[in-house]
Design goal:
mainly alpha, Cytochrome Bc1 Complex, Chain D, domain 2, 2 domains, two-stranded antiparallel ribbon, two-stranded antiparallel sheet
């Protein structure tokens, strides 16, 4: 009697486990499917997060957190034609070395001097540009560390 009880119990548990296997497998596939971003996408996301912090520390004082600029002094980065007109390599050089000349943004000329930031490393600049692209450019791609190094080597 006791043997048949355990045998019945074992069969019932086996059936429950067998019925749960497809559900567990589906759950595992969903978890892996959601969390399996490409290495490049993970790097891009890291650049965006780090770039946001660097932007807020080094750029937002003049260009504002929302990229709107500061009236007639400093040009906006959001909702501008800059992203179509200014070469990304030039932007890397501007972040590192600054700009003394005027710049035209959305048809308006800005004459304020932009100081360079010599303490920014190539990785910092890559992260800031990737963040700015994410926020305000139609091109949401990463500006890689290698591309940044090449751009900085070729600065005028």
């Amino acid at each position: 009697m006791l043997t048949s009880f355990f045998s019945l119990k074992l069969r019932t548990n086996t059936i429950k486990i067998c019925l749960m296997i497809p559900k567990i497998a589906l759950l595992i596939l969903v978890i892996f499917g959601v969390s399996c971003n490409s290495r490049e996408e993970i790097t891009r996301q890291q650049y965006v997060v780090e770039g946001m912090n660097l932007y807020q520390t080094n750029c937002a004082n003049c260009h504002q957190v929302d990229g709107s600029g500061l009236k007639d002094l400093y040009p906006p980065l959001a909702k501008t034609d800059l992203w179509q007109r200014v070469d990304i390599n030039t932007l890397a050089c501007l972040l590192k070395n600054g700009q003394k000349d005027s710049i035209r943004v959305n048809g308006k000329v800005f004459n304020a001097y932009m100081p360079g930031n010599a303490k920014l490393q190539a990785l910092d600049i890559a992260e800031i540009i990737t963040y700015m692209r994410e926020k305000w450019s139609p091109n949401k791609s990463i500006f890689s560390l290698d591309s940044t190094r090449i751009a900085l080597k070729n600065c005028p």
